[in-house]
Amino acid sequence: MSEAQPVEMAFTVPGNPRGQGRPRARGFTTKDGKQAISLYKDGKDRDYEMAILTAYLAAMKGKKAPARDSYAYVAMGLTAYFVVPKSWPKWRREAVNGMPVYHISRPDLTNIEKAVEDALEGHAYHNDSVIAANVGLKLYTLRESRLLVTLTYYPVRERRT
Where do runs of H (alpha helix) occur along 27-158? Predict the structure, then answer.
């Protein structure tokens, strides 16, 4: 009997990679006169999560996502590409051509990861707690900004008796 192999899928989210922002708070008074607070996501965060989900669904077109009980865990790989700033001198811009130059300013890589995890929850996996491995990079590019996401589903191993 052959063992199931990991299933990998990748997709690209066009546009500038964006990190998940902090939740916003709004105070209000309930019908019975008590003070309460409601937390919500910023509109730009919701729009970016929708762009991630749209790119995922477009990549999945015609494919079936692995069943929830068929994989033990998921590994996520992210590569966020940011366009080189126009203010960089020519010698620095040329250094990006062919060599990885790391993007070390905002947004934080962990916030980009959180945005992707939240956007795909319930679609690519049932809960983001199944993500056991996460590898990410932020790089400069001479081409367009984008976010490359790779998901690898590792199968449940059968017990040997």
Answer: 43-60, 90-96, 109-120
